[in-house]
Amino acid sequence: MTIEEQIAYLVKGATEVISEEELRRKLKKSQETGHELTVKVGFDPTAPDLHVGHTVLIRKMKHFQDLGHRVIFLIGDFTGRIGDPSGRNKTRPPLTQEEVLANAKTYKEQVFKILNPEKTVIDFNNRWLGSLSSEEWIQLCGKYTVARMLERDDFEKRLTAQHPISIHELLYPLAQAYDSVYLKADVELGGTDQKFNLLVGRDIQREFGQQPQILLMTPLLEGLDGVDKMSKSLGNHIGINEPPQEIYGKAMSVSDQQMWHYYELLTDLSAGQVQKLKSEVESGSLHPMQAKSDLACGLVSDFYSEAAAREAKEYFSRVVQQGEEPQEMPTFPVRCSGKAVGLVDLIAQVDLAPSKSEARRLIRQGAVSIDGEKIQEPTHKVDPSEKESFVLRVGRRRFGRIRLE
User: Fold this and answer.
1) What is the predicted pLDDT for the residue at 212?
2) % of the chain at pLDDT higher than 70
3) Residue 10 pLDDT exceeds 60
């Protein structure tokens, strides 16, 4: 690729680059000298599973890999115990070391669904941050002022609202910045909510006599509701470890307009290729349902295989579009000691809904049925003396054979 083609490939979907001209110079120098750029991305393992919102950055890492650069997937086993204040309106409880390491293990297993394992460096920032002496931490703190730290939007809002800010939270941006110093990062990738932390990294690198890193920021992917940021806690996510048919079905639920944002951020298609597809849909030469199906198949293929994508598509057609029961479904034995069990509790117990409140909402919407009979009363109970085994359907894609014991 020419330098301009490389720039177009790397900044596709980015909301801001600081600065594109600096990136151009570094890419040109790398091409002339054959010296790869060091690209750093940090992930604090705050939850055990990744969703496709996380893969926006991971895919951008892959793009740098495609161009021959050194990509470091940095697991924040130290910073994760501080707790990133980005986007928080109150102090977040820090994770324990055991929680961090358990989550980190699953991260390592999941990222290689997109990244090339032979070209990816995985590192842990406790390796250097944990070995800094008290004196070195004080020296690091001396390179930044409290006034500049409190310019941060999150902190400013919390001060105005009289919400507490703990001293340890002020250390988080400095710790992340020191990661860049230690790794001698040429480029750091992050979401738009990370802008302050990334800028601190540039400042601290200058303080240590290094060239400041290029910042490439990507938008926060909206969830399936098209409103809030994708989040497992909000139930609007697509988990990359979810079954293929669930990934496919969730992708098919996004709106026609939202689909193009997903195409931009969750595929390797160029901006021109995405625009071509959009033009074909607008002209009527391509049905939006087909474009959405192609997107859903692409996601399943990325995380599983093309064969799994074909099977997921067939499952969606047969079960969701034609209303058939799946040929295979999990069986859930439920202990009830001969007593009637509430439907809300039952749904939550077998994980066919993420919470009891979500189970109630789905029941009220008429999205729950027992052996094909729609149930719309959240207080409904199932009596084992009347029905020991039945098929429970929750939503359009989740099924389970319940056996009351």
Assistant:
1) 96
2) 97
3) yes
pLDDT at position 232, please?
78
The values of phi and psi at residue 332, to 5°, are: -120, 105
Nearest to 113 by CA among 69, 67, 73: 73
Token pair of 91 as six digits: 């102090």
pLDDT digits (tens, 9 = 90+) for 348-365: 888 888 788 888 988 998
pTM attached to this predicted model? 0.77
Which domains are present in the chain? 3-218 (3.40.50.620), 244-321 (no CATH), 331-404 (3.10.290.10)
How big is the chain by its Cα radius of gyration, in Å?
Answer: 24
For residue 219, give both structure tokens. 């938008």
